[in-house]
Amino acid sequence: MNAGIIPSSWSGPILSVLRIMTGLLFLAHGTTKIFRFPLTDYFKDGVPLFSFMGFAGLLEVVGGILIVLGLFTRITAFILSGMMAVAYFMAHAPQGFHPILNGGELAIMYCFVFLYLAAAGGGPWSLDAKRA
């Protein structure tokens, strides 16, 4: 018997909501790099498309859209999880050991949420579920 506050029957829909919100937030990282929307101080000039950050921005846009739709969720999430691990170790870890001090806590969070989605799939509200 499940004695939790949230019924276990909600786990599928909540997985879908986690996937959709994660994808939307991740997509915003790509659109700010590639399309300069929303405009941020850090990427106010955009990034060159054929650069390392441009490639990251393309992965964020395409991967974010696929994650939101729940299309090819497992492979997309696996690739994005690896991308975020690389981002952490290349950009954040050299700045210090503690993620809260080196600014890498979001990269770690994305890495593990995407790893979970790679294992769990897109949930019932996904195009993957509709195709199955």
Attribute tags:
single chain, mainly alpha, 66% helix
Explain this structure:
It is a single chain. This protein has one domain. It contains six helices and no strands. With 132 residues, it is mainly α. The protein is 66% helix and 0% strand. The mean pLDDT is 95. The protein is globular.
Approximate strand percentage: under 5%
Q: Care to count the β-strands? A: 0
What is the 3D shape?
globular
**What count of helical segments does DSSP give?**
6
Q: What's the story with the biggest beta sheet? A: none
* Separation of the first and last Cα atoms: 30 Å
Low-confidence regions = none
Give the integer mean of the pLDDT values.
95
Q: Approximately how much helix is present in the residues?
A: 55-70%
Helix-strand makeup class: mainly alpha
N to C succession of SSEs: HHHHHH
Rg, Å, rounded: 16 Å
Number of separate structural domains: 1
Summarize the structure.
With 132 residues, this protein is mainly alpha-helical.
What is the topological layout?
Elements: H1 11-34, H2 52-69, H3 73-92, H4 99-102, H5 105-120, H6 127-131
Helix pairs in contact: 1-2, 1-5, 2-3, 3-5
